[in-house]
Amino acid sequence: MEEKVCGLVIRETDYRENDKILTVITKELGKISICARGVRNSRSKNASAVRFMCYTEFVISGGRNNFYYMTQCALIQSFYKISEDVVKLSLATYLAQLAADIMPECSESGETLSLVLNTFYVLANTNKDLALVKAAFELRLMAQQGYMPQLECCNGCGEITSPMFFDISAGGLWCPACAAKGVKIEKNLLDALRYIAYCPLKQLFSFTVSENIAKDLYSCCEQYAVSVAGRPPKSLEYLKMFM
Ligand SMILES: [Zn+2]
To answer: Is the peptide bond before 200 cis (omega within 30 degrees of 0)?
Structure first.
């Protein structure tokens, strides 16, 4: 049976002579794999709708083990403009890979689709600080995917003081009296983490922090994302050459 879904291509892999296997985030079916036959043929009219960063309407069939075959497609929006800037492209590649690694197959994922679409829109059309975009995406993705860190109070005694310590592996806070383990975080950094975790998605990138806080936020969110993912995505190493 055929069905129609809208989804964002977050990974493309060449397959056989002329085909591609796409990893796509859809609202309806979550993260799925789609085999797009013949799209690497130079005469394929679908080629421009099945690339990385394309938001596309797919007509698909199959679905055994979350694997589908594409029968038709129509491009809705492409974020290909990102690829004009090598740093933005490396960042988009890393963020997409992180999402692909974290998301389970076939789970409801409207929120995460919105997060990735918003982020790609910001990368394509604005000049926001890329380090902040990276940090906000990392933490928000984890929060959406069931790894919301406990940012309210100390894990041990429930106190809230400043500074606190953010325990990366436990995803929670400690006060200095209970356990001074993890990353030391001042109040401003904790405020930034809370903002990213709880704010309406539309306002995710509408914050600024001082230079010092930005540095700590960058490292804190990356460490947390890598800890949840279990290992750093390969694309992070490449991104590190630029930022
Ligand atoms: Zn405590």
So the answer is: no
